[in-house]
Specification:
83 residues
């Protein structure tokens, strides 16, 4: 069984990151964290964050909370144009 305490801990961090970036929509925020997690694991960058483990997602949150940079939504949009 996964640790139930992770939920409050991760949601608190997600809230902190969102408060630092209030112009992002929730989905943008989650994709930003997911792409950061994929980079940590040397996975292909895409919008499918379904398979990222909570621990990896939390590590990505920690990384982004320590940085002062903003999400690069333009770079993401260039690689994921709608047909």
């Amino acid at each position: 069984m996964r640790d139930p305490q992770r939920m409050k801990r991760i949601l608190k961090k997600l809230q902190q990151l969102w408060e630092q970036n209030p112009d992002l929509r929730l989905s943008q925020l989650c994709i930003w964290v997911g792409v950061t997690a994929q980079k940590k694991q040397n996975l292909p960058i895409n919008s499918d964050i379904f398979y990222i483990e909570d621990a990896t997602f939390e590590e990505a949150l920690d990384q982004l909370l320590k940085k002062d940079d903003k999400p690069c939504c333009e770079g993401y949009a260039k690689n994921h144009k709608s047909e």
